[in-house]
Design goal:
The protein is α/β, with parallel strands linked by helices. It contains 11 helices and 7 strands. It folds into 2 domains: 7-20 and 129-239, 3-Layer(aba) Sandwich (Rossmann fold); 23-126 and 251-284, no CATH class. Bound molecules: magnesium ion.
């Protein structure tokens, strides 16, 4: 069945297949804060005015939604350290002391551990496949080769895929990032495109996903909810694979929520009360605050 169809549809995993709301954004910000706090990067934080830090970090986040985790982290750290919300490939670019450059790896490790812990706890309890998506996948698999392209590390991606009981047989490839986090979705999309399909559509949920699609020269459609799939199906009736430019930033309301939840967690951490990953994700998914 592999490679038999003329056209391919590629799904991003987080968002279009499994809904996680704004949880990941909050996990990224809070984990970056914890990683700075627990390393030499603490000196750039403002424990008396955490609002300052969250405002800076948000700028780094909105520039890199859906990017590999260490790229996202570097943009947030760059925002904290020098108020420039751009990713760096090498910590020297942050213009920090040599001793801190050496500590950057420790910061990455702390971030990795904390962020993975939060994602694991939230995925178990709160993240679910979008309503109707499995039925749609089955239908689409009759006319299109289907793939998953994700920034998630390959092992974790495959575990998540299995955990949510998607049907492996309906997909020609489940493709994620590597341990170093230097394979991005544009490379995966290019690889799929090079299997010489007539047409490839990437279904993603972030502005970064649109950039990846453009870079790889494939079409893009944004899906953040089950409702978006209904729009896609309607469009496909008229024009086969659509190509919709949608910058899909967070809404103002979503940003407010991300900010207030993260700030509350930061204040809690600063007060010295350490919550478990489960307690944190339960707080994030609670209606209050
Ligand atoms: Mg996504």
């Amino acid at each position: 069945m592999i490679g038999m169809k003329k056209k391919a549809i590629v799904f991003d995993f987080d968002g279009p297949l499994v809904g996680s709301g704004q949880d990941k954004a909050i996990h990224i910000l809070f984990s970056a804060f914890v990683a700075c706090h627990d390393t030499g990067f603490r000196k750039f934080l403002h424990p008396d005015h955490p609002e300052l830090d969250i405002s800076k970090m948000l700028k780094g986040l909105v520039n890199y939604p859906g990017a590999p985790r260490f790229q996202q982290l570097s943009a947030i750290v760059s925002s904290i350290v020098r108020d420039i919300p751009e990713a760096v490939a090498d910590p020297h670019e942050l213009c920090i002391d040599e001793s801190l450059v050496n500590e950057y790896q420790k910061l990455q490790q702390r971030y990795n551990e904390f962020y993975s812990g939060l994602n694991e706890a939230a995925a178990k309890r709160f993240w679910k496949p979008l309503k109707g998506v499995k039925t749609l996948i089955k239908k689409l698999s009759k006319d299109y080769d289907l793939y998953v392209a994700s920034g998630i590390i390959q092992d974790i991606l495959e575990k998540d895929f299995q955990h949510h009981k998607f049907d492996r047989k309906l997909f020609c490839g489940i493709m994620g990032s590597n341990q170093e986090g230097n394979i991005d979705k544009s490379m995966i999309l290019k690889q799929i495109k090079n299997r010489s399909y007539q047409d490839v559509l990437f279904i993603g949920d972030s502005r970064k996903d649109l950039e990846y699609a453009r870079k790889a020269g494939v079409k893009f459609f944004r899906v953040k909810s089950a409702q978006d799939y209904k729009v896609l199906v309607e469009k496909m009736k008229q024009q086969d694979l659509p190509d919709v430019q949608d910058m899909c930033e967070f809404t103002e309301q979503q940003l407010q929520r991300i900010r207030s939840k993260t700030l509350a967690l930061m204040n809690q951490y600063l007060s010295g009360k350490i919550l478990s990953y489960q307690e944190i994700t339960t707080f994030i998914n609670s209606k209050n605050n």
